[in-house]
Amino acid sequence: MMLASMLLLHGDNGRLDLIYFWSAVLIAALPVAVFTTIAVLATRGYFRRRVPDGGGEPPPPGDRRPHGLRASAR
């Protein structure tokens, strides 16, 4: 009974239905896009870290300091 009365109050407003549709698409697509972006960036960072030299710029000639994450954490 409640559903029937709500449908009567809502009427047949195609413009409002379109707004509801696009808001539902946005609610579903936005988190998927955000988490996909985070996963891609994390995966790229992981595989970039696996490069033996760290994947960064080479040290200048004559620089004998150790490079890498472990050296900078000391």
What does it look like?
This protein has a domain at 13-51. Helix content is 66%, strand content 0%. It has helices at residues 2-10, 14-49, 69-72. It starts with a helix and ends with a helix. The mean pLDDT is 78.
Topology:
Layout: H1 2-10, H2 14-49, H3 69-72
Counted beta strands = 0
What kind of sheet is the major sheet?
Answer: none
Cα shape: rod-shaped
Order of helices and strands: HHH
What separation lies between the terminal Cα atoms?
A: 71 Å
Mean pLDDT: 78
Note poorly predicted spans.
Answer: none
Number of helical elements: 3
The proportion of residues forming helix, as a percent range, comes to: 55-70%
- Evaluate the radius of gyration: 27 Å
Beta-strand percentage? under 5%
Secondary structural class:
mainly alpha
In short:
The protein is mainly alpha-helical.
Please describe the structure with a list of short key phrases separated by commas or semicolons:
mainly alpha, 74 residues
